[in-house]
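Thread: "does anyone have the structure for this chain?"

Original post by V.I.:
We have the sequence but no experimental structure in hand. Need at least a predicted one for the grant figures.
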Amino acid sequence: MNSVRDDLKAIYQAGISAVSPYAAVRSALELKGDNLRLLCEGSVVREFDLSRVARILVVGGGKGTAPMARALEDILGSRISSGCISLKYGYTEPLARIEAIEASHPLPDAQGLLAAKKIYELVSSAGEHDLVISLISGGGSALLPLPPGPVSLEDKITTTNLLLRSGASIHEMNSVRKHLSLIKGGNLARAAYPAPVINLMISDVSGDDMDVIASGPFVPDGSTFSDALGVLRRYNIMEKIPASVRNRLEQGAGGGLEDTPKPGTDVFREVDNLIIASNIIALRAGAAEARARGYATVILSSIIEGETREVARMHASIAREVLSSGNPLPAPACIISGGEATVTVTGKGLGGRNMEFALQSALFLDGTRGITAASVGTDGSDGPTNAAGALADGATCAKARDRGISVNEYVANNDSYHFFEAVEDLIITGPTNTNVMDMRIMIVRRGV
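Reply from O.Q.:
Generated one for you, tokens below.
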């Protein structure tokens, strides 16, 4: 039999390969002469006669947007009039007609602001005879920062950092970010109106809520200024955020500012929003690979959220049950899940939710033979690190102790990256140019 580690690698690589942004765009758009067809699972959603289109304008942002843009260039070529996309540093590809600007993630920077301004100006120039094509993938919220004055980029960065460290879910975070932006929360649809828009999205959020993916630049927003204030109060960061942010949200909640465009608003009349890749597709591909390798396999869920420690505890408990009783499936078994857990950061270490999952799993599995866990960010980047995630088993803590490493100190300091670096169990894939949240895999195989 293959080693467990080889099997784990093959399973998560199969998942990542299945959500190729390039292939997803090629499956969603088809050009026949002057006729551009928008497809969903092979069926035509809408057709555009390009002979009647004055300009095709391309915009977008996210970690997987470069291969999406390359696919679009391969489909449309010189028909593209102009374009600009915002990408995470290192996630670009050669493009001929669409400008790619590399910027920072998960915290925005000046390059992201530059890209967002160009994108906003380009979309705002669109008329009813133009066609806007938007390419959105995970990370777009950070990569498209365009705060309204007097909120500055620095104020936005401070607020984003506080939210990231608070334990707020992506839905909660984005309800705040939408109300601190000229782009998010449907505001790009407002800028593009009355031009028709094709908005292709690769989902990185639990439940594939369109308005949360990159904070929904072309999607109706169900959240309000009051909701955004509620998030800040819920996580006790109201007094820590910059005054400009607090003043804007309070003014909006009081009716002094126009809220983000809501469902049914005219600005969405000519917008087609379509999700072309998501977490469940990756999980199904990983499960197929696991079955091909001889494992009884179950996908728990693609929308698991919550504190990472508790998510790890639940997965470890299921794996132990498989080992002891053969429920809910017999060993050798593979348990797969997806979604995006959160980490409430109290220490000053380096890490991300996938490495945190592995570290917590190491504690729950300490001394147990036959269970190996891995958690991987499908984008190849876990938090502000070069690792996609990490691997742990029942011997991980013993290995650390043999090397004089205090596991509890690393846990307390949220320093999962340096822990797994020390025990040599980081998972490093490099940039994958896609992003559909995380894959968690637990293999139960007796005798290993």
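V.I.: this helps a lot. The longest strand covers residues 80-88.
O.Q.: and The chain has two domains: 4-11+280-444, 20-146+181-223+260-277.
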